[in-house]
Give the backbone structure.
Amino acid sequence: MEKLFAPFQLGRLSLKNRIVMAPMSTGYADGGGLVTDLMVRHYRRRAEGGAALLIVEPGVVHTQARLFPNSMGIWTEEQVGPLAGLAGAVHRAGAHVFLQLCHAGPKARSRFSGRPPLSASDIPLFRNDPPQAMTRGEIDQTVEDFVRAAARAARAGLDGVELHAAHFYLLSAFLSRLTNGRADDYGGSPANRSRLVVEIIRAIKRELGPDYPVVVRFNAREYGEGGIGPEEALQLAGLFVAAGADALHVSAFDRYRPELAKAVTVPATAIPGPEDPEGVFLLYAREIKKTVACPVIGVGRITDPVTAGEALTRGDCDLTAVGRALLVDPDWPQKAQSGGYTPCQGCGDCLTTLGDGGVRCAVNPEVGR
């Protein structure tokens, strides 16, 4: 596992090891999308545990694009100060910190926003909550929303941003033929479907300069006929890098869940279950890494340090994103060197509690307290 603890250069940032905390919604923000003391403590504790880089949960770029009522926001200047407090706490604990930027798109629920969700087209994700296809004006405004959000993140002291273009949130909904039925410049070919993401990358680089890191998280594999597959994933990766992406965070949406079929049109989930193997998405990162010059972040049920170390040694990825394992044991990075970490059971308690006062963990009672 030596490579897991080797330093790494990500653009202008010197990372002390190859361990990244994956972005995970906490539900700890207040009703106005502001960072709370609980959220600061949550991320500070993970930074103290030894991860080199924390990617903070989705910062929603528009008030009507929330994932749920207590989503963290980055749509107004009022949110910059509290976010700066979080960034400072993480830095003092010895880690770098990025903010994931997100628009919920077809995953936004009308009961929260008071209006139909927006998406690439009117193809529904939730069968009972169909979206409206975005107009060209709304697309242009969304680019501006992401750029302003990135600028706020930079003013708050965040070291970089990640675009959430995975898991069928708005940017992902444009990338996938499963949810993008447009016939204009934003639909059809991979170049057209990636146009919104590419425009956002370029606009952020123009606003903040070429050295401000921008990561793109996207699906390299989607369940279902017409979903993103290996060849198209390579095309998308190349387009993102050409636009200026500094790293690619390679996820997937291919875990079939038949129990969801009655509720959603894409019967899968991005969250691997306990029946899935360790490092379930690493094979997708491996293929992407063969073709791009920028760093690749591997993710997908990485709960064992041996899995992370072997992925780096094989060359599957340059950095490993660890999510739920850091909820269970924030000292996972430190304990990985000596053993004795508390393993994640994959029970999903962190998901079921998210909408009920914020994320909890069945194994670690400190989470959320």
DSSP finds 13 helices and 15 strands in the chain. The longest strand covers residues 214-222. The longest helix spans residues 136-155.
